[in-house]
Amino acid sequence: MFRILSITINKHPLLEGKTFKLTNPDELKTSNYYSIIIGPNGTGKSYLLSYLIEVFNEIALTKSDSYFVTKKKFSLTYLLDKENFEIVADRGMFIFHKNGYKVDIEEISLPSKWLASSVTINDKYPILNYIRTKQIPDYKYLGIRAATNNAFIGKIKINAVSYFIEALKTNKSKSLLSVLSSLELNPEVQIIFIGGPMLKLEKKERRFVVYKNSNKILDPHNAFIKKNKSKPSYRADNYKKYIENYSAIEDVHEFFTLRRSSFEKASKSAMRLNYSVDLKTETGINQLLHDWKVLSIMLDLELLKISDFLITKDKTFNYEQASSGENHLLTSLLGIVSNLEDNSMVIIDEPEISLHPNWQIDYLDILKRIINLHKGVNVVIATHSHFLISSLKDEESRIVSMRRDQETKEIKIEELDFETYGWDPESILYNVFEVATMRNKYFELDLRNLISHISSKSVETTEIRRLIDKLERYIMPNQDDPLRLVIQQSEKYLKNLN
Prior knowledge:
Blueprint: E1 2-9, E2 18-21, E3 33-38, H1 45-64, E4 74-80, E5 83-90, E6 93-98, E7 101-103, E8 114-118, H2 130-135, E9 139-142, H3 153-169, H4 173-182, E10 188-195, E11 202-204, E12 207-209, H5 219-227, H6 234-240, H7 246-258, H8 260-263, E13 273-278, H9 285-300, E14 304-312, E15 316-318, H10 324-339, E16 345-349, H11 357-371, E17 378-382, H12 386-389, E18 397-404, E19 411-416, H13 425-431, H14 441-455, H15 461-471, H16 482-497
Parallel strand pairs: 3-17, 3-18, 8-9, 8-16, 16-17
Antiparallel strand pairs: 1-2, 1-4, 4-5, 5-6, 6-7, 10-13, 10-14, 11-12, 14-15, 18-19
């Protein structure tokens, strides 16, 4: 079982000095746990998620590189397989404790995976370069950015296909079926590959001709690397992985040769490799997985590209033609399914983006069906959606509220440990998100309760103070707001009592 108990951030422009208690220590019996972060824009929710990822990345990096020096200052405590770990970073050094005793880093255990999921271009998660990816293999970025500040539609489609196939490789057909059925999609999908931009076959008699040997396959890639040697290039780094991997290139050449009829066409778009998979009958899975060993290399080298990822609802359509909600939900859930293991940490930033309220209501139930196929998973979600909150049971979750004090502008952190399961939207908006909509019955009940205490000359000062503190958050800026007068009179009443 993996649980983040708390993290204190001691060096950060927005969150410095803040402690986040992400797990209720009395709630350690459930197999999986949900830590929900709520708060208005600008309070630092996304920065907290990113910081959690960066902390585990740096600990993992320290385990693989003894010369690494951290620039962060924090205190982290977590549980893993009944062991309690505390890690403090300060002045470029780590101090490690296990079950209360100071230990070396070799005795520190980390979650099996830490996954960073997002469907927004503005996520704050780190994207690792090729070297760092090798050093920190347990971190998986599942967002849509291809680099620090950009995203490419083609890359998003490649990711979706890669996630789908990785899930098949790890025998997660049941999870894939759950995702597709939750979106009312059929269990059959098609993946179509065509010739890619770096496939430079020669033409004879108006048709491309497969090379007689493997020597020429990488000629365009070597030329690209030479041309771009003076500047960083993701593509060049990808190509370099195969420059001296002769066996991989021989496998690619053999693949071309065996499928000569598919590649010796008049155009690259006519070079079609069609793979159909039925998850219920497992038809086509073995063939796709067998060929994927070479297909993945050819995609990296851009000898092939994914033309279509076809899914079916009432009719068959391309993944890119799905609604933004379907597209986001399918991509993010496939990413989680394909990478999830027992004792993982899953970080999700604003999953409700582009989702209809019905899907926001269903989101956690869909996610739970995936998560519950594993044990010991701690899911941390930052959200603005009150619909998500009603799917949470008290014993499996903690809600952490972040808000900015109206007077001091300081970020305030509060743990909300109460049952929200099955609450109606108005109740969650008012009691959890602290939003009073017009004619909100819960706001009205609190207001009536306060007025009743004052008019009956109640001496229950603690309850009166609680109601004043709660209601004054909803005073409108204008001076004529009647609530302002009620609060003023209530404050005066309390002062006279004292």
